[in-house]
Specification:
Layout (H helix, E strand, L loop, with lengths): L3 E4 L4 E4 L7 E6 L10 H19 L3 E6 L6 H10 L3 H18 L15 H13 L3 E4 L2 E4 L15 H6 L15 E6 L14 E3 L1 H13 L3 E7 L3 H16 L4 E7 L2 E3 L2 E2 L10 H8 L1 H9 L7 E2 L2 H24 L11 H15 L4 H20 L3 H19 L14 H19 L3 H13 L2 E6 L2 E6 L1
Parallel strand pairs: 3-4, 3-9, 9-10, 11-13
Antiparallel strand pairs: 1-2, 5-6, 6-7, 7-8, 11-12, 14-15
């Protein structure tokens, strides 16, 4: 099956053809670890974890690299404020990042390199750029000479001359061109630093990803991915310095997800409109958060709202309940079945959706349709159809998108006292229905629904779901 993805460099949908027939190499830009991650940070985590799973689902062996930027101005500022070494800050928030990724059920990458573990390789890389005439030292800093790289601006579809005319940075004795960017930064007083041929300093932001990607995946690899806020300057600069260094293509395909916005603004710590991943997962559950993200095409902006999450939580709860009902129907374990013609047809539809520029919105809609079919099969006691739809959701499609893999505990789980009260209300409603007092029975049902408790009449009796 042909896979099409939107390549940022070409600006169009293209057929994805990996360098090696049976494997894919993939680099995803990771976080600068100076704080807890917010829900905006989670979108590339969720999207590209699922894309990796999809590639594996259709038969590729995927090698995925996601870095940690563990030395940066923001890390240094926080360390100074707290009066601790910079690496205490970075190590703390790497641990917290991994906790949040685990709560979201994001699989770890094959490699999670840290910038500080590659300083020697970064210095060597910069030296070679200088030797090739693409970089120059100036007062202890080292800059990439943008004018020497003719393809500069191609990834972000910008004209360098237009960027120069709009630049507020004047040509000076330090930089020969306003667009030149730092490969190596001279150390300021009391800053963390490493010895180099140009004096004490530390790596620039862009160079770290070029070096770690090259060291772990080779000079040319398949996919470079991240948020579209990184296209310029980060990915543009990465591409320029990497291609100047090797003389070859860097990433063959560039994939970028759209931003998560709040009231039209990009979610960011500087604006202060952030929702921490751990808070949202704790309140709504991992499945709801991931379905909320995957229900929109990955390249379009996504508006964040509690109303949107609450609505998605209700849809997710219905799927989770249908799966649980299927397990109860078979007293715990749903029998295994080889793919029937019905299942093969649904699998083909699923693959076609994800092969078309990773259209997860269609894939999620298919899962919701299957959930409705599962409920219908349960009501009709159609065992074959129960088994087919259950396995399509739980064991076939859910694991590809990282959703509905396990039965999540309801965030508002019932206590013994709540259960006793609910049983009294259910008995009262049942008695009202027996007495044909439908006004009272409907009032009980609607009143419970208004506070998030759904009554469900089944052949085994009335059950309740706290949403």
């Amino acid at each position: 099956m042909d896979i099409k993805i939107f390549d940022t460099l070409k600006g169009e949908l293209v057929n994805f053809v990996p360098i090696k027939n049976d494997s894919v190499s993939m680099y995803v830009c990771g976080p600068t670890v100076y704080n807890l991650i917010h829900i905006g940070n989670s979108r590339p985590m969720i999207v590209f974890d699922a894309f990796r799973r999809f590639l594996e689902y259709v038969g590729y062996k995927v090698t995925m690299v996601q870095n940690f930027t563990d030395i940066d101005d923001k890390i240094i500022i926080k360390a100074v404020k707290e009066g601790v070494p910079f690496n205490e800050i970075s190590e703390r928030y790497i641990v917290e990042y991994m906790k949040d990724a685990l709560a979201l059920r994001i699989r770890t990458a094959n490699f999670h390199p840290k910038t500080t573990n590659y300083v020697h390789e970064i210095i060597k890389f910069i030296n070679e750029l200088i030797d090739k005439g693409f970089a120059y030292e100036s007062a202890g800093d080292v800059y990439f000479d943008v004018r020497k790289f003719e393809q500069y601006g191609m990834l972000s579809h910008r004209n360098p001359d237009d960027m120069r005319s709009g630049s507020r940075i004047e040509v000076s004795d330090i930089k020969t061109d306003p667009l030149d960017f730092a490969l190596w930064k001279k150390a300021k007083e009391n800053e963390p630093s490493w010895e180099s041929p140009w004096g004490k300093g530390r790596p620039g932001w862009h160079i770290e990803c070029s070096v770690m990607a090259t060291e772990l995946l080779g000079e040319s690899f398949d996919i470079h991915a991240g948020g579209n806020d990184l296209i310029f300057p980060h990915h543009e600069n990465e591409r320029a310095q990497s291609m100047a260094h090797s003389g070859n293509d860097f990433a063959n395909y560039w994939m970028h997800n759209g931003m998560i916005k709040v009231a039209g603004d990009k979610m960011s710590k500087s604006i202060g409109n952030i929702w921490l991943v751990r808070d949202v997962v704790s309140k709504y559950g991992a499945d709801t958060v991931k379905v909320f993200v995957l229900s929109k095409h990955y390249r379009v902006p996504l508006d964040f709202s509690e109303e949107g999450l609450q609505a998605q939580k209700k849809s997710v709860s219905r799927v989770q309940q249908a799966l649980k009902d299927a397990e109860d129907f078979f007293a715990g374990t749903v029998p295994y079945v080889k793919n029937t013609e019905y299942m093969k047809s649904k699998i083909e539809t699923f693959k076609q959706a994800l092969s078309d520029d990773f259209n997860t919105s269609k894939a999620v809609a298919l899962i919701f349709d299957l959930s409705a079919e599962l409920n219908k099969a349960l009501s009709e006691k159609n065992e074959t159809h129960v088994i087919e739809n259950y396995h399509l959701i739980r064991n076939e499609f859910g694991p590809v998108l990282g959703i509905f893999e396990i039965q999540e505990t309801q965030q508002k789980s019932s206590t013994d006292d709540t259960d006793k009260v609910m049983q009294v209300l259910i008995q009262l409603r049942n008695q009202a229905r027996t007495d044909k007092n439908y006004t009272l029975s409907d009032s009980i049902r609607d009143g419970l629904a208004s506070i998030g408790i759904q009554l469900k009449d089944t052949p085994e009796g009335t059950k309740y779901i706290i949403q």
